[in-house]
Amino acid sequence: MSDDHSKHHIVQPTTYATILGALLLFTVLTYYVAFIDLGVLSNFVAMGIAVTKGSLVVLFFMHIFYSTRLLWVVVAGSFGWLGLMLVLTLGDYITRHWDIQHRIFF
Amino acid sequence: MHSSEHSAHHPALAHHFQDLDQQKDATWLAMWVFLGTEIMFFGGLFLAYVIYRSSYPDAFAIASNALNVNMGLGNTFVLIISSFTMAMSVYSAQMAQTGRLVVFLILTLVLGCTFLSVKYFEYKDKFDSHLVPGRHFDFAHHHDPKTGAILEGAHGGSANTESTSHEAGHSEKARREIQIFFSLYFAMTGLHAFHMIIGAGLLIWLIVSSMKGRFSKEYNSPVELVGLYWHFVDIVWIFLFPLLYLIGRHHHG
Question: What is B31-156+166-252's CATH topology?
Answer without folding.
Answer: Four Helix Bundle (Hemerythrin (Met), subunit A) (1.20.120)
